[in-house]
Design a protein that fits this description.
The chain has 346 residues and is α+β, with helices and mostly antiparallel strands. The chain has nine helices and ten strands. 45% of the residues lie in helices and 16% in strands. The strands form three sheets. Strands 2, 3, 6, 7 and 8 form a five-stranded antiparallel sheet that branches. It has a three-stranded mixed sheet with strand order 1-4-5. Helix 4 runs antiparallel to helix 7. It starts with 9 loop residues before the first helix and ends in an 11-residue tail after the last helix.
Length: 346
């Protein structure tokens, strides 16, 4: 799939669904497997690592989008929104994509320019999103837009919307989602889409009902109720997504290490398997240590997040572990020598 830039087949999605991969963070009451605490986050991290060991684009990455949407719903959705979406995410009845990044705004989320303007039927959406992973296959987009025209409000003027592809008001128009050409992860479709006067119903806004805020003992002043709170809801999803990215990197490292170890045992140079040479052993030993450190870092962040903390550490884990994966996979390639450059090797 990576070499032909082909799309993920339904058999993969069906199989992953049978394993329960899409419901790892969905609470049990909504048909998932999450029951709170450390084990919920640890289970997600371990599953993500193992799936990424098998394939980054069609394994570990596939479960990240529903994970982000699940966390956003749990943080800011109404009971009706949770009941509608969470069971369907858990059983893969719907696939989700995240529409936050724009051509001119990536990490600077607070500066996005896509607008959502109130209308008689709900909202009118205008703007362009890019790097929407799996958008071509998704049934719903988790889309962040500026609902307050005053840009001085920055992140406080953003709202989060659940955009159903099948229920967009007929007079709406969107350009076809166009997959972006990339040098790697080609099996992971990333699209760009422009929305012009796309009509959204009122219930598309992710919002928390006031009585739920009171029940949770949050301030009943409006904070967290919906309009202007999309940034916080989206970040609740991204925190776990960052941890998942670290786990994906660990899976890729482990696969690269195992391939290098197997090759070092079978490849002979000057009559000796290259694993018998000290330089090769130093490389493999260092790789193993870095992988284990990265894995334990991910586990520790999962434990922190299971106890309501770990926001900063999730960002640190993503930054460090992804860089470590670059080094480990490069070393695995070097151990293969010239064959590391051949497509006949992983």
């Amino acid at each position: 799939m990576h070499r032909t830039n082909s799309d993920i087949p339904e058999t993969i999605i069906k199989g992953l669904n049978e394993l329960g991969g899409f419901g790892l963070s969905v609470p049990e009451e909504f048909g998932g497997f999450a029951n709170g605490g450390e084990s919920e986050y640890l289970g997600m991290v371990i599953a993500t690592e193992e799936l990424s060991w098998g394939g980054l684009g069609i394994g570990g990455s596939l479960i990240t989008r529903p994970e982000i949407m699940t966390r956003a719903l749990l943080s800011g959705g109404t009971q009706a929104q949770k009941e509608r979406w969470l069971p369907r995410l858990a059983n893969a009845e719907v696939l989700a994509a995240i529409a936050v990044t724009e051509p001119d705004f990536g990490s600077d989320v607070a500066s996005i320019s896509t607008t959502a303007t109130k209308s008689a039927g709900g909202w009118l959406l205008n703007g362009t999103k890019t790097w929407c992973t799996f958008a071509a296959r998704a049934n719903v987009l988790v889309l962040l837009a500026r609902s307050d025209p005053d840009r001085a409000q920055s992140h406080r003027g953003l709202s989060l919307f659940l955009v159903e592809r099948s229920r967009v008001i007929p007079r709406a128009s969107s350009t076809p989602r166009t997959p972006m050409a990339k040098v790697a992860a080609t099996a992971t479709d990333d699209s760009r889409a422009t929305h012009r006067h796309v009509g959204l119903p009122r219930h598309a806004l992710l919002r928390t009902e006031l009585r739920e805020l009171v029940r949770a003992r949050r301030e009943p002043s409006g904070r967290g109720r919906g309009p202007g709170q999309g940034f916080y809801f989206q970040m609740a999803g991204f925190e776990n997504g960052r941890l998942q990215t670290a786990a994906r990197a660990v899976g890729v490292m482990q696969a690269a290490y195992e391939a290098a170890l197997e090759y070092a045992r079978s490849r002979k140079v000057f009559g000796e398997p290259i694993i018998n040479y000290e330089l090769t052993r130093v490389k493999l030993g260092t790789m193993a240590a870095i992988i284990q450190c990265s894995r334990q870092f991910s586990f520790e962040v999962a434990r922190l997040m299971g106890n309501g903390a770990g926001t900063m550490e999730a960002s640190m884990a993503k930054a460090y572990v992804c860089r470590a994966a670059e080094w480990v996979t490069r070393e695995a390639m070097q151990i293969h020598g010239g064959m590391g450059y051949a497509r006949s090797t992983p």
